[in-house]
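Hi,

Apologies if this is the wrong queue. I'm a grad student, and the batch job for Mandelate racemase from Bosea vaviloviae produced an output file that my downstream script rejects. I'm not sure whether the problem is my script or the file. Here is the sequence I used:
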Amino acid sequence: MLVEKPSTAPKLRSLSAVTVNVPMRRALGTSADTVRSAPLLLIDVVTEEGITGRSYVFCYVASAGPAIARMLEAAFETVRGDHVSPHDIAAKLHKRFRLIGVQGIVRMALAGLDVALWDILAKAAGLPLAAMLGAQLSPIRAYNSNGLGLMTPAACADEAMELLEGGFSAVKLRLGRTTLSSDLEAVRAVRKRLPDDVALMVDFNQALSLSEAKERGRALDQEGVYWIEEPIRHDDYDGYADLTRSLTTPVQIGENFSGVTAMAVALSRKASDYVMPDLERIGGVTGWIRAAGLAAGNDIAMSSHLFPEVSAHLLAATATAHWLEYVDWAEPILCEPVRVKDGFVTPSAMPGVGLEWDLQAVERYRI
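Support response: The file is valid. Your script probably expects a header line. Output copied below for reference.
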């Protein structure tokens, strides 16, 4: 009889999760809310061999942190003692949580665990994650997504110029003011101040109806905007297909894809010109790999949403890589934050994903 070779992969031993609330250097005023701090759930997964895998989840609101942590703990109890095999563990956990549904905080918890598992595997191999995925540590073009919220046009123009520090060649402006004219004032003020070779993305954060989106989108077609992001409800793929056909400016969606299936549906309906999956909603590294294959198969440019530390590795291994969204929200609690040079971010050369907590800062911001 055949004897299966014992697995040499590390074995899962323990998990810890800490919620911090990190003040943002620049407040983010969106059509939904003004965000002044980043609630993050910091995740450490330890193996029997003493390897620690790390990741973090952006909780959106501080009250979600404990709920995500509890779901994460429940998930870990299902796989404690398992060998680290992210694809197998993802399948096991999706089956375990099928009845409640792998959505919302369940998906966020599982994605946070998945990233930590890939960090473990890359550390065990002595490789940066990008190299583990077969990619070079190539510089990734980034746009500055800090700040630039719903401020006065003059304040937006001033901040846009400040955001070029580090050599950025693109910035993102939030829209969704009460009138088209007030949105246009902000866009024109920023576009006028920016050098001609700097791209200006705009993001409505789902603020508009379809008819409003068509009206504002057609107006923006004349303003030199690089892309229009999430103007309507995130899952109205038929509406997005209509917009994509109607507007000259490219339409960008994807941060709210809940798993790769949602992305597949959107692509099948030709709902956008570009996609930008979110690491904690697409399913962590395991989900990203599937999403990148889907994007390549559909020949559609794929950017990242948040999590620049890990996303840089993933975009390096993405055939249709487009833009890295750069935010500095986690920087205060990291020993080695992401560094921007000439508008590019290079994946960390450390084994794993490159996350190391500044423990004094973690205690300072701990909830």
